[in-house]
Every structure is written in structure tokens, then in C-alpha cells.
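Working notes for the structural subgroup meeting. M.R. asked for a predicted model of this chain before we commit to crystallization trials. I am recording the input and output together here so anyone reviewing the notebook later can reproduce the run.

Input as submitted:
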Amino acid sequence: MSYRPPTWRSVVLTGVLALLASAGLFVTRPIEIIVDGTHLDSDVQPVAAARRVFVPLRTIADALGARTIREAKGSSVVIIRGSDALHVRVGNRHATLDGMPMTLEAAPFVVRGRIMIGLRSIARAFGVRASYDAVAGRVNVMTPGIGEAPSSTNLTITQ
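Returned structure, recorded in C-alpha cell form:
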């Protein structure tokens, strides 16, 4: 057998396949959850779909210091954080916040036994700042006043 150098077509084809494989790995990497600067682990990863991000409700609620009560039937959940109470039902966009009606942008759903809720719904209900960075694959949730630098209006400079 004699060695035959690869053709330019086989080199290009190999390069294209390697690029596609690495792009596939980039797209399928798990989404990281950061709440008030702390990395959270969850057995169910956030789901990015249709320009929305859904997060595991109990994981986020626990990190925000909320108490989660799941009704025996399993389709309704009450999340209590301080004096706020959010009542949601799986498959229903209509929720209540402190007894007042609230419409979620998407209905909560279940993934492997975990209720997933829209990130914006959590932000709206509990007054936190929430964002999703698709490039970094990261969900950030910040409670105002925790882990933030003071604003220039709150800064006092002494000389």
C-alpha cells in the first residue's frame, strides 16, 4: 500500500462536518441558572422555545426564598414569597397574584415531574430582574438590592 494525500474535497468535507458537529454541541449545551450571583443546579434544565425561556418553578422559587406548595392533584401550585402569593395551574395562562388575576404569557407545563414557568412571569410576579443570554446559555435573575452595585443616586462621596 502506498500513501495517497487527501484530496481537497475530502479536506473541505471533513472541515464542514467538524464545524457542524461543534455547532450542534454549542446549541445543545445546558442552560446555566444564576440567581443573585449564585449558580443553581437543577435536575431539569431551562427550556428556550418560541422566543421564551421556561425555568423550573421550584428551583427558582427556592433560590428567591419563596415557599412552594403543590396541591395534591399536582396541577396547581402556590408560591409564597414575603407577602406575595402566586397561584398557577399547569396548562392554564390565567393565574392569581395576591388574589388579583394575572395572565401569564404562556401556560406552565411539566417536564419530568417539574413545573416549568416563563421567566418573564416570575420576574413580573416577584419584582425581580430576569434575563436570558442565548449566546452564553445563561438565565440571570437578580433581586433588587442584592448583588447589585449601588446606583449613582444612592452613592455618597466624602472627602
